[in-house]
TrEMBL record:
Signal peptide: none annotated. This is Putative nitrate transporter NarT. GO terms for cellular component: membrane. Coiled coil: none annotated. The keyword Membrane applies. Belongs to the major facilitator superfamily. Nitrate/nitrite porter (TC 2.A.1.8) family. It comes from Duganella phyllosphaerae.
């Protein structure tokens, strides 16, 4: 019977583990691209709909708010239906508002579709679930972080590519109004294509699909009960809520920066739309390696010590993120701002990877519930940051406050340390997997 993979063979797609690895990061990339496709075009959309600062803040909050609920739901759904069916359904349903936003005719309709697009952000939970059930303890941190990091890069690519795509549409002879709308249809179509590819070429776990395994009476790790039972088990674990907070302070900040970076560079440093898109895109593109680096480092720290070395690393990374965010907030020129953004972005992405290198060990009985609740924490952080900016009315002051908050929440990582019995169980599981 097939088992979890204990190595990552990047150039292979011959095993179900590696097919899931590659297709899950590709699906996540498409979802993230769609999720943040509007952000770099906001300076143009702002002018067309005559949006106020408060309305833009509402749009940014809407973009991440619905993801909280959907992330809480899709984790247990993975336990019940399996990641293959759950991902396929999310891609197909998520494509509707992505395409719909191109037809918005007012602030209200744009806000409605932007809210719906946020569901695509729940793809992250399914990505982490699928790699967690496919890879063993020695490499699960690296697998989770690499898949999530390469997928996260879709946000950075959207920042750089969407203005270029809109420009290409305009060069074909259409108006600017039609250009940004036509550009926004592209990610919706990509989601539909990816849904069919994912359903056709992946399976739920190394042994097969959940429905077939349950019918055969075979026990499924991570999806033993599913649904509401998975959620209740996860919600009763205090470590889940500590990591909920830390993930809000790293991934939540990442989402917040994705939403405000382009318009911040345009308004504060007078960059062009293209320049601002490239600058903001560099933050997201860090995820190509930085998130994977965080997961890899977590695996290495755990191998040389024990499970608690993973949370110690997370603590250090979050302190670095907080310090870097303060540097970014007080940068006086565009060059300094970009440099500071890359520094704190490195710590941010690595902290995200290190967080989900801990997730598979929190409660193996309810992997979907754990992944879903902690993943939702990221969006709670982003929504909180959005409300803070709306209340402060000043991006720089908001960033400064967030820098101190991030550093303070690093303490939650230390508080999530594991007991000696849990560490011993993990050591035994690693030896058996070897």
């Amino acid at each position: 019977m097939a088992t979890k993979a204990n190595s990552i063979k990047l150039l292979s797609i011959s095993t179900p583990q590696m097919r899931a690895f590659h297709l899950t990061w590709m699906a996540f990339f498409v979802c993230f691209f769609a999720w943040f496709a509007c952000a770099p075009l906001m300076p143009v959309i702002k002018g067309e709909f005559n949006l106020s600062g408060a309305q833009i803040a509402n749009i940014n909050i809407a973009a991440v708010a619905i993801t909280i609920l959907v992330r809480l739901i899709v984790g247990p759904l993975c336990d019940h239906f399996g990641p293959r069916k759950t991902y396929t359904g999310l891609l197909l349903l998520g494509s509707i508002p992505v395409i719909g936003v191109a037809f918005a005719q007012s602030y209200e309709s744009f806000l409605f579709f932007r809210l719906g697009i946020g569901a695509a952000g729940a793809s992250f939970v399914i990505t982490q679930y699928h790699t967690s059930v496919m890879f063993g303890p020695k490499v699960v941190g690296t697998a989770n972080a690499a898949a999530a990091g390469w997928g996260n890069a879709g946000g950075g690519v959207a920042q750089a590519v969407m203005p270029l795509l809109m420009t290409a549409m305009i060069m074909l002879g259409v108006s600017e109004t039609f250009g940004w709308r036509a550009a926004l249809i592209v990610p919706g179509v990509l989601m539909i294509v990816m849904a069919f590819v994912y359903y056709r070429f992946t399976q739920d776990c190394p042994q097969g699909n959940f429905s077939e395994l349950r019918a055969a009476g075979i026990a499924i790790e991570g999806g033993k009960k599913g649904g509401w039972e998975s959620f209740k088990l996860a919600a009763a674990n205090y470590r889940v809520w500590l990591l909920f907070v830390t993930y809000g302070a790293c991934f939540g900040i990442e989402i917040f920066i994705h939403n405000i970076a382009a318009i911040y560079y345009v308004d504060h440093f007078n960059l062009t739309l293209g320049q601002a898109g490239m600058a903001a895109g560099s933050f997201g593109l860090l995820a190509l390696f930085a998130r994977a680096l965080g997961g890899w480092a977590s695996d290495k720290f755990a191998a040389r010590g024990n499970l608690n070395h993973r949370v110690t690393l997370l603590f250090v990374l979050m302190l670095g993120e907080g310090a870097g965010l303060l540097m970014f907030a007080h940068a006086s020129t565009a060059v300094l701002a970009i440099g500071a953004m890359l520094i704190f972005g490195l710590f941010t992405h690595m902290a995200c990877g290190a967080t989900y290198a801990v997730v598979p060990f929190v409660d193996k009985r309810a992997l979907g519930g754990v992944a879903g609740i902690i993943g939702a924490g990221g969006n709670v952080g982003a929504v909180a940051a959005g409300f803070l900016m709306k209340g402060m009315g000043d991006v720089q002051q908001t960033l400064s406050i967030l820098g101190f908050v991030v550093a303070a929440t690093a303490l939650c990582a230390l508080a999530a340390r594991f007991s000696s019995s849990t560490i011993e169980e993990n050591v035994i599981a690693s030896k058996l997997a070897a």
